[in-house]
Amino acid sequence: MMMMMMKRNYAVRLSIGLNICVLLYVCAHFGSSGPWSEDGATNWDNNVVQAPLVQDNQNNNIIPFSSNASERIVDVQTNKETIIIEKDDKEKIDVITSGFDGVIKDVESTKINLQTESVPGGQESPPLVESSISLQDAIGCKDKNLDSRVSQRGDYWVLYNYVPMTVSVKCWETITYTTHADFTFLDNLEPLLERWRAPVSIAMYTPGTDIQPTIEAIKYLRNCASPLVAQLVTFHLFFSSKHVPKSIPSREKILSDSYNCSAVAPWLNSLYTTKMYKNEKKLLYPVNVGRNIARETAVTHYVLASDIELYPSPDLPSRFLEMIRQRDQPELLKPNPKVFVLPIFEVDEKSKPPKNKTLLLKMLKNGTAIPFHKKVCSGCHSVPKSKEWMEEKEVAGLHVYHVGKRTGVFIHWEPIFIGTNLDPMYDERLSWEGKSDKMTQGYALCVLDYDFLILDNAFLVHRPGIKIYKKDSRRDALAAKTNVLIKKIIVPELRVIYGTRKGCVV
Q1: Signal peptide position in this chain (predicted)?
Q2: Which of 55, 121, 135, 304 gets the highest tally of CB atoms within 10 A of its CB?
């Protein structure tokens, strides 16, 4: 009997000892903080991957997903993890959010691909592809107002937000097309708006008596043209201190005045066009002053700084912002500063600008469309991988087709792109007549190592009419002076301000 009791006590002690060992093993692996470490990484052997995050829009908290995703695949060899949750599958969403007692307001983005790659030293590179989030969170900008103000800008007086658009937009909701003109170019505004359908910020050059036809043109467009003009276009005025108009109507008067819509449009009125103050005084057109005014006053984070005769492919703002929101392309997450390039084309005067890439490719094939400035300065707008771009069929959505640099055969490239006001501005000493007006900005972008992300299904089309080279002795002389100014004055300044980089030239 005594022997039996000793054996039983031994078994109990052995059982207790084993339980203690198991408990110590569990504590050593999980600790008091649960499966998530303080830095948000999971402790699964050597497979350390960042916990996917979701935004709590109501409480502005970042919430880690639970580790028991419905579909969680971990490859131990490549250290890659994929978490997939069907968007409309409530059961799977409930699994993902189990254990979290906060509020998740928006669970729209339910497919997340985390890819971490091993690098020397045992560290990990950031995810190549991140989860899509709300557009507001993806952009993270601050709103601006459209309050009117008057200010001096070097030699110029500027009436900012002289006639503002009527709609109110948040900085992250859309893109602003920023441009410049004198009143004779305002016939481009309606066709541009029909394709763009988003805010336009336009700086109008109004020296001397040119302010009168400009005011008449604004009133005509707001009263007699498409409602999109009043809704989406903000007009700014600027003129040199040497050519101040004799009087400037108040903004309130312009907004309240009616207009006789049976009258001819001001840009077609020979009384205005044959006696332009700018032409009579032989004034140079300060193109970069206008570009900077229009860009700086844009109320949105993203801007397309372009020329008013270049019409964008339809639905570009919404398609571009959806691409930004999704953030599912590695090129969007690289640390380099970046801009988004739009290839440019021309169509003959009998053709309408194509509405999509499929139609554009047909027109390029039959010769009714050509690359921009092909017959004037083909190198100025030659886009990297342009031949391949023109052979690639249209697909759904918008993507980065190729990442280019302004080096090599593209050292004089003058791309037009979607960017932000963080990008270098245009040098305001350069004029349209003197040419090379965007070259100095291109140099700054190159030195700062910008990536030029060329978009696959977006483009610009010049108003109908193929441009051909025409000799202009006056412009040639002005261009020669401009080249001296750039070489002797501007480039040395740029080297001090931005530095230098091999392969970057003006």
Answers
A1: 1-33
A2: 304
Domain boundary at 275, 308, 341, which? Answer: 308
Tokens describing residue 296: 């700086």
Residue 32 counted as domain residue:
no
Query: 202 and 152: one domain?
Result: yes
**170, 299: one domain:** yes
Average pLDDT over residues 5-31: 51
Residue by residue, DSSP assigns 219-281 as HHHHHHS-HHHHHHEEEEEEEETTS--S----HHHHHH----TTSPPGGG-HHHHTT-HHHHT
Does residue 117 surpass a pLDDT of 90? no
Asked whether residue 40 is domain-assigned, the answer is no
User: Is 492 among the domain residues?
Assistant: yes
Instruction: Based on the fold, state whether residues 359 and 400 are members of the same structural domain.
Output: yes
Same domain? For 463 and 336 the reply is: yes
Q: Is residue 4 part of a domain?
A: no
pLDDT at 17: 59
Same-domain check for residues 481 and 343? yes
Beta strand 451-455 pairing with 344-347: unpaired
Q: Which whole-number Å values give the CA distances from 52 to 20, 77, 139, 495, in the listed order?
A: 35, 20, 19, 43
The tokens of 43 are what? Answer: 């402790």
Last residue in a domain, options 308, 343, 376: 308
Tell me, what's the pLDDT at 199? 98
Nearest to 187 by CA among 160, 221, 162: 221
With 0-12 CB in 10 A as exposed, 13-18 as middle and 19+ as buried, what is 103? Answer: exposed
Sheet containing 460-462: give its strands across.
310-312, 460-462, 344-347, 369-371
Q: How confident is the model at residue 159 (pLDDT cuts 50, 70, 90)?
A: very high
Q: pLDDT value at position 10?
A: 54
The β-bridge partners of 236 are 203
DSSP-assigned beta bridge partners for residue 160:
149
Q: Which domain holds residue 404?
A: 329-506
pLDDT band at 403 (very low <50, low <70, confident <90, very high): very high
Q: What are the structure tokens assigned to 41, written together?
A: 């990484």
pLDDT of residue 18: 57
Residues 76 and 155 both lie in one domain: no
Tokens of 168: 């109110």
**Closest alpha carbon to 211 in 290, 289, 278:** 278
Q: How confident is the model at residue 132 (pLDDT cuts 50, 70, 90)?
A: low
Does the pLDDT value for residue 217 go beyond 60? yes
* pLDDT in the model for residue 95: 37
454 three-state secondary structure? strand
DSSP per-residue codes, 315-366: THHHHHHHHHHH--SGGGTSSS-EEEE--EEEE-TTSPPPSSHHHHHHHHHH
pLDDT of 276 above 80: yes
Q: What is the mean pLDDT of residues 73-96?
A: 39
Q: What's the whole-number mean pLDDT along residues 302-328?
A: 96
- On whether both 150 and 120 belong to a single domain, the answer is no
